[in-house]
Amino acid sequence: MSQPTIESVLQERRLFEPSAEFSQAAHIKSLEEYKQIYDRAAADPAAFWADLADKELHWFEKWHTVLDWQPPSVKWFDGGKINISYNCLDRHLTTWRKNKAALIWEGENGDSRTLTYAQLHREVCQFANALKQLGIKKGDRVGIYMPMIPEAAIAMLACARIGAVHGVVFGGFSAEALRDRLVDAEAKLVITADGGWRKDVIVPLKDQVDKAIANGAVPSVTDVLVVKRTGQHIPMSAGRDHWWHDLQQGVSAKCEAEPMESEDMLFVLYTSGSTGKPKGVVHTTAGYNLYSHMTTKWIFDLKDTDVYWCTADVGWITGHSYIVYGPLSNGATTLMYEGAPRASNLGCFWDVIEKYQVTVFYTAPTAIRSFIKMGEHHPNTRDLTSLRLLGTVGEPINPEAWMWYHRVIGGSRCPIVDTWWQTETGGIMITALPGAIPTKPGSATLPFPGIIPDIVDLDGNPANDNEGGYLVVRHPWPGMMRTVYGDPERFRKSYWEHIPPKDGKYVYFAGDGARKDEDGYYWVMGRVDDVINVAGHRLGTMEIESALVSHPAVAEAAVVGKPDEVKGEDIFAFVILEGDRQPSEELAKELKKHVVSEIGAIARPSEIRFAEALPKTRSGKIMRRLLRSLASGQEITSDTSTLEDRSILDKLREGA
Ligand code: WT7
């Protein structure tokens, strides 16, 4: 952490109340009702969650202990037996929802498919049996590297059904990034597809899997399960690779859900941290089920008449909690779209909303900023009147982008929920409840019931109103991560030690700077550690630096975020070459390509500046705040007294 003080410059005074009509029909109907629930939950969080767990979920066996908190290790609902696939599917089959649309899927190439709860249940059971046939057992890790097709959700639910731990890897990650994650998770099986459609081209997923596991690079992987999506020829390795449509033949569609212990691992999902390789964030069964369920219900205010669409990819936590588990656990209709706005159809999102009469729409600020750039013409030529509620996630939303979203997409009638959370939190933590909490553009507003956040300084002392500080959470919640896969020490260090415990009370450190205003509204400002947020995706500077240094021409590299209008931040890399190498345009291009092949296209540096040396403190720490100022072309006004060699700065500037 480099910032000694965190200053907020945003002064936003507009306030938007939900309409009386919206509030009356909402699950939580007024600010008073929210406050009542919030206060009751804060007085006894464990009792609050236990009550909901009892009312909202199906249990094979009830827990004996609601909360066992021995920081940083936590157990929720210990002694309970539950299965999230059962809660997402089976329990709806005994109701009228059996024949309700569970999953609506729209492919980028115009294919589409709708699965009812009964049909989705059948597919999941069959898939689960196929996994068993391949020798997958409870506790085994399964990699999922898929396009946005129904089989991605089916594979996740099938793993959960038999107690296998899924590790979804975003389909945009490179073979190298996939390999690292499969190795770390010791996956036995990889589920993939021949390819997926993305911006009118085929993403060759199976080829990437072949590359990732070639030459025994991932010894734990014995089988690859391939779904046919795009149909181009792909090599199949006999004995190792299996087509899903072949395996499916003659596989029974009966498969009971495995009763899981509350704290059995449900999935591992990798995310970037400020140091070293990506962390495998571990989530467990019961707490995650309850937390994704409750947040979906109250925040997206889901009713049986809703068609709910979250535009994330299942490769991110947003896809896990708010495309698959949360909506299905609630018996809602969730929409999955394979495509992205592309030159051949910039308005494709609005087509999807019109075609399926989407009522609740959840997307990212970076997407909204790109819609603004494309022009109002695209949404204005589609019928968006079905929409009743909008959401955003991923980074702070600029008030003007919020206003555009409200006016152009929401027709000035839809509340907006700006939802702050993280891979680690499992679900949304700070957000408006749309029928209850008036919104202020740019603020995530108030904490979800049962969540006790605060703003503190580095010693853990609470900040005053409107004073910037570090965002922390004071009490455990059911959806919180349990550990870093295979590295409990890293879990402790990354989240529980930055802010020292006071009177033995540990606080969760989120890594974000924020302030709380006089109404208790939270204004999140962004990361305070060495994490860059590019288009709502977290990238650790260390990972990109390591990728650069793995190129033979590079001796040292430092990467910083540079403000970007659409993406929020762009990647700016300072590179020191090995003695005999000369800077050139070609080399810069080659290095960018190298980062793409090491991590994936989302990590491509927008700019590479060759330098002779980097600004360092006398103790040898790279002074990133100086590099950040240089990257954004700002004058360096902050203190440079700890800099070892001041002439380095002038040279770096000349490089511009
Ligand atoms: C980081 C977490 C959680 C799903 C998407 C990203 C930033 C996320 C907001 C928001 C301000 C936000 C934070 C956070 N962030 N939502 N509404 N307002 N900042 O998940 O990759 O784990 O990233 O995204 O900086 O720490 P993630």
TrEMBL record:
Q: GO: which molecular function terms?
A: acetate-CoA ligase activity
Q: Which residues does the annotation say bind ATP? A: 394-396, 418-423, 512, 527, 538
Domain AMP-dependent synthetase/ligase span(s) in chain numbering: 97-483
The residue ranges of the Acetyl-coenzyme A synthetase N-terminal domain are: 34-88
Modification type N6-acetyllysine: residues: 621
Q: Which cofactor does it need?
A: Mg(2+)
Reactions this protein catalyses: acetate + ATP + CoA = acetyl-CoA + AMP + diphosphate
User: What Pfam families does the entry give?
Assistant: ACAS_N, AMP-binding, AMP-binding_C
**Cited CDD domains:** ACS
Region annotation Disordered: where it falls in the sequence? 634-656
Q: Does the keyword Iron apply?
A: no
Q: Which domain of life is it from?
A: Bacteria
Residues annotated as binding Mg(2+): 549, 551, 554
Per UniProt, CoA binds at 198-201, 318
- Name the EC number(s): 6.2.1.1
Q: Top enzyme class of this protein?
A: ligase
Modification after translation: Acetylated. Deacetylation by the SIR2-homolog deacetylase activates the enzyme.
Could you list this entry's UniProt keywords, alphabetically sorted. Answer: Acetylation, ATP-binding, Ligase, Magnesium, Metal-binding, Nucleotide-binding
- What positions does the domain AMP-binding enzyme C-terminal occupy? 543-621
- Compositionally biased, Basic and acidic residues: which spans? 643-656
- Role, per record: Catalyzes the conversion of acetate into acetyl-CoA (AcCoA), an essential intermediate at the junction of anabolic and catabolic pathways. AcsA undergoes a two-step reaction. In the first half reaction, AcsA combines acetate with ATP to form acetyl-adenylate (AcAMP) intermediate. In the second half reaction, it can then transfer the acetyl group from AcAMP to the sulfhydryl group of CoA, forming the product AcCoA.
Q: According to its UniProt record, which protein family does this protein belong to?
A: Belongs to the ATP-dependent AMP-binding enzyme family.
Annotated protein name in UniProt: Acetyl-coenzyme A synthetase
**Gene source species:** Pseudanabaena yagii GIHE-NHR1
